[in-house]
Amino acid sequence: MQRLAIITSGGDAPGMNAAIRAIVLSCHSKHIECFGFYHGYNGLMDDEYQLLTPDMVRPITQYGGTILKSARCPQMHHDSGLEKAARTLRRHHIDALIVIGGDGSFRGMMALQSFWSGRLIGVPATIDNDLACTDSTIGFATAVTTATQAIDKIRDTANAFERVFIVEVMGRHSGHIAFNVGLATAAESILSFENCPTDNLKHVERELIEKIQTQQQNNHSSFVIVLAENLWPEGPQGLKTALFDAAKIESAVCVLGYIQRGGSPAPEDRILATELGIEAVSAAISESGVMIGKVNGTLTRSSIIRATEQNKPVDQALHSVYQQMAYF
Ligand code: F6P
């Protein structure tokens, strides 16, 4: 292999820079030229790239975001866009493309397979941790740490004012962030897809009201609800209104939002990104259509189809820990 290209695609995740660095240094040691295309797949549409050298990536591990920029690319949903991306890769005689991103980015990669005969490798990076075939995705550990620190601060105010807080965390449609952060912050309630039937949220609401009222009768203290985004109709404001309308319970809302996606990566993410990046270059020499992961401490190469199509549920053990912590 002589030429490899990389892109970072979809939602940025802390640790993407560490993965870029690992790939570039690994290419350098193997005498492979490394092309960095900018703005995700858009860089392939617009032929916007730079040859990446070790000097360009040495001081970036500690930074969030991505030096290659990121974007979502609607053109990848159409044959014309896929053909355009393939043409760019052919024009530069690229042998392999490494995509650092989440499931949407990997779906684009699978679609590209029909238009380009080069090798395609995925490196899982998303704060949501919603990809199978890897215990953790790059960025997840940092997002959990950031959200935990934020809720610890909110808890001070919640305690001081003996207030109910509804804190919305990210995760798209999965509850990995919600459950991990909820447990780490000893949240009184975790509301996520995994433990709330979306067709019976009235029942969830009734149970929640009962829990808040029981706690308020027993002792005056704070009550933190960690709410997964996209779960409740009209989001945390909708839940706030529901609690007030049904039981006159006052609450404060805080949406953590994009602070969970930014910031200096946690050491776990830097290390994971470095390991996955190096392994991705090795895989790109002979394989295609695989995602690099780490399962039970071992680096793995799994079919990209399995990684995106298989569901990765929140660990059952976390559910049961949460159940056992409910003492009202
Ligand atoms: O996938 C990462 C993520 O931050 C999700 O948690 C969130 O739902 C989504 O991206 C937000 O996407 P956008 O950057 O397009 O607003």
Automatic annotation (TrEMBL):
Keyword field contains Transmembrane helix: no
Domain Phosphofructokinase: 3-283
Reactions mediated catalytically: beta-D-fructose 6-phosphate + ATP = beta-D-fructose 1,6-bisphosphate + ADP + H(+)
Enzyme Commission number(s): 2.7.1.11
GO molecular function: 6-phosphofructokinase activity; AMP binding; ATP binding; fructose-6-phosphate binding; identical protein binding; metal ion binding; monosaccharide binding
Location in or out of the cell: Cytoplasm
Cofactor: Mg(2+)
Transmembrane segments: none
Keyword Kinase found: yes
Cellular component terms per the entry's GO annotation: 6-phosphofructokinase complex
Family annotation (PANTHER family): ATP-DEPENDENT 6-PHOSPHOFRUCTOKINASE (PTHR13697:SF4), PHOSPHOFRUCTOKINASE (PTHR13697)
Name the UniProt record assigns to this protein: 6-phosphofructokinase
Organism of derivation: Pseudoalteromonas luteoviolacea S4060-1
Lineage: Bacteria, Pseudomonadati, Pseudomonadota, Gammaproteobacteria, Alteromonadales
